[in-house]
Design goal:
391 residues, alpha/beta, Rossmann fold, Arc Repressor Mutant, subunit A, nine-stranded mixed β-sheet, three-stranded antiparallel β-sheet, 18 helices, 12 strands, 13% strand, globular
């Protein structure tokens, strides 16, 4: 049940030593997310990687001899004290570190080929576990029409309990974030810089709003500047978090095309808004449509394709928790469990409940003796319960 309890209420089960090992691991030059995933698959835990011998490293499939040398040398070159200082600085700005295997690590992102080993998060990490997440991206130099459409799409999506993901850049990204916020919903901004570096500088106020009504996430350590190579890496996180990517407007060289390509590689849905033929603003997005991307003129097209059009929060998305926390949601969970035991993440997807609401209602049902919790985050109806679904 730990994965369903908000992090600020549950005990700190991830020790400081564990976080130090993670941060030292990600600083090894040339190792990268894929290398770290190989090591974790072999050793199972960052502490075991840190303490391994040369022979242990050489037994890892796919790890080259040069990387073994780097692994052997890094322990002396990356002392733990600066890493400890970084954890303290994160605490001071109200941020936290989420690692692979953490209950709050986004499950969709964990499935990609090269998931970030650590995520720095400022805001409410619950939004990383939303059952409906959609990326809305596009050009920094977008046309006024496209900016308005990006805002309208995001505004409408949040009224269907969709969390809007984007990259906090100028243009379409900013319009998407603002649309979600203005609609009273939630948004996740993926940055290419450290949490203590605002880029672009003009989006500082927007970033504050996002932190208050969503979260800001990055794989970059504190102090990281906007180096060009970091943005394509950032884009894989945008697409990796979401169930699909909507390209509102993109030129031939727009970074949004990188995001859409990565989305396809990750098995995500890709949509694009059609633009006028010959308009350089939308040459890239029009090419996506010719390649088979879903045709989008408004949020209703996306919702229909994703099969999300049936659930609407009648009084706005912020009313969803209040509606879901009543008797109707308890009955819904009982119906979901009637066919047999279900894991918590699958139960969340089926019920469309937020993590916080699901946790609260399951606890109520447990205390009432209706539901039993089983190892591995599985839940089932008590054997003595007879629930007639014929009425």
């Amino acid at each position: 049940m730990i994965g369903l309890v908000p992090w600020w209420l549950r005990p700190n089960i991830v020790k400081t030593r564990n976080l130090i090992d993670w941060l030292r691991l990600v600083q090894i030059p040339g190792l990268g997310p894929v290398g770290i995933r190989k090591l974790l698959g072999h050793f199972g835990h960052p502490q075991a990687i840190v303490e391994a011998s040369e022979q242990d490293y050489r037994e890892v499939p796919g790890i080259r001899p040069r990387m073994v040398d780097q692994l052997l040398n890094f322990r002396n070159k990356i002392p733990s004290q600066p890493v400890t200082d970084q954890l303290e600085r994160l605490h001071q700005i109200g941020a936290r570190l989420i690692t692979l295997g953490d209950p709050f690590y986004p499950p969709m992102l964990a499935e990609i080929h090269d998931p970030p080993p650590v995520l720095y998060v400022q805001g409410d990490p619950n939004h990383l576990l939303a059952s409906r997440m959609l990326a809305v991206v596009g050009s920094r130099r977008a046309s006024p029409k496209a900016l308005g459409l990006a805002r309208e799409i995001s505004f409408a999506l949040v009224h269907h309990q969709v969390v809007v993901v984007s990259g906090l850049a100028l243009g379409i990204d900013s319009a998407a974030h603002r649309g979600a916020l203005d609609g009273g919903g939630f948004t996740v901004a993926v940055a290419a810089v450290g949490l203590d570096v605002c880029y672009p500088p003009g989006n500082q106020d927007l970033a504050r709003r996002i932190i208050a009504q969503g979260c800001l996430v990055t794989e970059a350590p504190l102090g990281t500047r906007p180096d060009p190579f970091r943005f394509p890496a950032r884009n894989r996180i945008i697409s990796g978090l979401a169930h699909g990517v909507v390209v509102v407007e993109a030129g031939e060289k727009s970074g949004a095309l990188i995001t859409s390509r990565m989305a396809l590689e990750q098995g995500r849905e890709v949509f694009a808004v059609p633009g006028a033929s010959g308009d350089w603003h939308c040459a890239g997005s029009n090419r996506l449509l010719k390649s088979g991307a879903g045709w989008v003129e408004g949020a209703k097209d996306i919702l229909w394709e994703m099969r999300w059009e049936t659930t609407v929060a009648p009084n706005g998305p912020l009313a969803v928790d209040a509606i879901n926390s009543g008797a109707g949601s308890r009955e819904l969970l009982i119906q979901c469990l009637a066919s047999g035991p279900i894991q918590a993440d699958e139960l969340s997807r089926k019920s469309h409940l937020t993590v916080a609401s699901l946790s609260s209602i399951l606890l109520q049902l447990e205390l009432a003796g209706v539901v039993i919790r089983q190892p591995g985050n599985w839940f089932a109806l008590q054997n003595s319960l007879t629930h007639d679904t014929r009425s």
